[in-house]
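Fold sample X.
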Amino acid sequence: MTVGDTLEVDLTLPATTDVFAYQIDLAADADSLEVVDGSVTGPDGGFDSVEQDGDTISLLHTRLGTSPAISGDLAASVELTATSPATVDLAVTRVTVVASDGSTITLTDPASTTVTIAAAPTPTPTPTPTPTATPTGVPTATPSATPNAGGTDGTGTGTDAGTGTDPVGSTSGRPVGGSLAFTGADLAPWIAASAALLLAGAGLVLARRRARRPASTEDAR
């Protein structure tokens, strides 16, 4: 056996006559073998019980009420659990039989056997994997593009059809719209001056025409 195993002990009382009850005592090392509760069996039509007192295990059977006595080979059994490694002498030390008239017969040291109990194998522990901490990356801020007057290439430089490079909100004094708009702003004074000269020239022509018209009238007169 191995520690933790259950041993079934079968007992037979052969060629009996007029048995109304019996008690079978077994010697067993209580430190190595323990009775399994409710495991005792006996002949049908009777009451069976088992008691363990130190190193003695007692199996008891009795007929019920008016049940008749029994004869022949009587079978009984009990289960024992191995609790520690040892070599145990399991012996039937005494059998007491009670007849229907109350008389008894006792048998001493009728049978024995040896039980070897081995230690339970030690399970091999399964290595537990060691969790490895995975470093968590520190999130970095994603730079956002600043829109420019000439486009948005994410670098603060205008990229449209002009060559302007000033971002929106620049304090350089240049107008929004790139260098073309800047050039137009630089020509505005010249355009205004030219327009004034044209107006002045038109005034001179008009004055000359007005001055010549009376002269022509006098000539006609």
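Fold sample Y, listed below.
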Amino acid sequence: MKRALSLQLLGGLKDWMRLFGPWRLLACLAALALVLLIALTVVPLELPPLDNALLSWLGQVIPVGMGRWLVRVYKVSGIQFTAVLVTAALIYLGWKRWWNELRWLVVGTGGILLIVDRWLKPLFDRHRPEDKLVQAFGRSFPSGHAAGAVVFYFLMCAILVARYPQLRRPLYLGSALWVAVIWLSTLYCRVHWPTDIVAGACVGFIWLSLCSVSLRFFGARQTDCSLGRSS
């Protein structure tokens, strides 16, 4: 019995790894290496020169009117608004009875929050930039804003595109533009260093990859089980 269960688990792991694929694995390893490189070479610096220069440059080149709009974007895209969006998405998935999708959206959004805020930020304990344009508390590296946006918006894209493939282009394009605006607003408000955003995007990409592949894997198994019962 135990041997059969072990073989079944091993077979499932192989199927999951096959679905994950070598290119996605290489991309995740590259993202992890970039996070480690930043953590070891940039995070220990009290005033990172490249980060500081980029923040100063953005403050100079972005017009005042656009800057006010970016401040509003940052405030709107904060935890409270994102929590409302996630709750609405969970209600929608529950109403549709898409239980596998609901499960993995909970894992994705809840997991990235725990990974960044409860583990990585306390581990690196990096301070935020000076002269912030909005109030922001806590540690800086990596950016939870960047990581959370990547996971939530693109995981929802994966969920919706699987059901409505004709919406693939507008969903992914709209999400990419919105996430980019969120990152830009975070930098303009001087809430994070640019390398915080890069690391947050990398962490978000790794977690998104794990969750999106698991979503497809367990969805396929669920379908196979349903077909088996019906036959």
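Sample Y note: The chain has a mean pLDDT of 88.
Also: The chain is about 80% helix and 0% strand.
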